[in-house]
Design a protein that fits this description.
Layout (H helix, E strand, L loop, with lengths): L3 H13 L1 H8 L5 E5 L5 E8 L2 E12 L6 E9 L8 H15 L4 E7 L3 H9 L3 E7 L6 E8 L16 H21 L6
Parallel strand pairs: 4-5
Antiparallel strand pairs: 1-2, 2-3, 3-4, 5-7, 6-7
Helix pairs in contact: 1-3
Length: about 190
């Protein structure tokens, strides 16, 4: 479920860090856009020789039925900008935006073989809570959790208690968006 204020705050925080992002990526400018429902993505793009190219993107959704939890999904930094600290900075921005909106917990999904993203999550205090094989893609997916407030009670979940429809919905949306993007544009350049 989209919380438009959450995405707006994330965009504002990205724009406040624009000079830092430009310096770390060696760019002179970029744009930030919110893709509307059902995507709930924040995208960063730049111009290269007159062509709009991808820089990074991520999605944030409130967990249906639980107004205190935000799910971060479809995190992607394009290959030419990896290893520069952009993924780390965008994770910090997502966490700050989530806290600013009063949410307590963050769940992040990642493909188990995505070592960079998994390292960033672990380094920033996320704990793996569940791992499973997505039957649609055969990818092993890790679900991570982090309590974003020191004073909040620990969050534990037994996925047996989470409605199957909620998990399937999150997985389907994430996978469908990735499949659609790569079928339409396998280079990731827009």
């Amino acid at each position: 479920m989209r919380d438009s204020n959450l995405l707006d705050i994330a965009v504002e925080m990205i724009l406040n860090k624009k000079a830092e992002i430009l310096a770390m990526c060696g760019l002179t400018d970029f744009t930030v856009t919110i893709l509307p429902t059902p995507n709930n993505f924040v995208t960063l793009k730049y111009l290269k020789d007159g062509t709009v190219c991808g820089l990074a993107e991520f999605g944030l959704d409130m967990l249906d039925g639980c107004c205190g939890v935000v799910v971060s999904h479809h995190v992607q930094v394009w290959p030419s900008f990896r290893g520069k600290g952009l993924g780390q900075l965008l994770l910090q921005i997502r966490q700050q935006a989530i806290l600013a909106m009063g949410y307590t917990m963050m769940i992040a999904t990642s493909i188990a073989r995505n070592e960079r993203e998994n390292h960033i999550l672990q380094k920033n205090g996320f704990k793996p809570m569940h791992q499973f094989v997505n039957n649609r893609t055969q990818n092993t997916v890790t679900m991570w959790q982090k309590n974003l407030r020191e004073d909040a009670k620990p969050f534990t979940v037994d996925l047996k208690d989470v409605p199957v429809a909620v998990v399937q919905s999150l997985l389907w949306v994430e996978q469908q968006q990735r499949v659609d993007r790569y079928i339409d544009n396998p280079t990731g350049i827009y």
